[in-house]
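Q: Given only this backbone (106 positions), what sequence would you predict?
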């Protein structure tokens, strides 16, 4: 964005897995001011370069964000272990203690 336009535009330096409920990187205060335009469900295009393939696990409070919805009620998600039954249906297991960032990002 900066290379094409010469300005920072709507570019924020933050932990996208923790946004908007937590995080502490320098771009967070600016991003919160634009939450109506960049919040969940409001983004049309997202370009990113996450550290896919890195040996970085997501744990703790950030992983908890993927277990509950906006109402803070536990929902089926990738932050749990899953098994496939013989009939092909999926069964949710225990909460995962850690998860790879690319799985959560997608």
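A: Predicted residues:
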């Amino acid at each position: 964005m900066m290379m094409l336009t010469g300005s920072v535009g709507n570019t924020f330096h933050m932990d996208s897995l923790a946004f908007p409920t937590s995080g502490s990187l320098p771009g967070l205060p600016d991003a919160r001011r634009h939450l109506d335009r960049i919040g969940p469900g409001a983004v049309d295009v997202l370009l990113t370069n996450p550290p896919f393939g890195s040996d970085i696990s997501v744990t703790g409070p950030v992983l908890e964000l993927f277990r509950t919805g906006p109402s803070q009620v536990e929902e089926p998600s990738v932050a749990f272990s899953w098994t496939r039954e013989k009939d092909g249906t999926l069964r949710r297991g225990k909460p995962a203690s850690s998860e790879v960032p690319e799985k959560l990002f997608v």
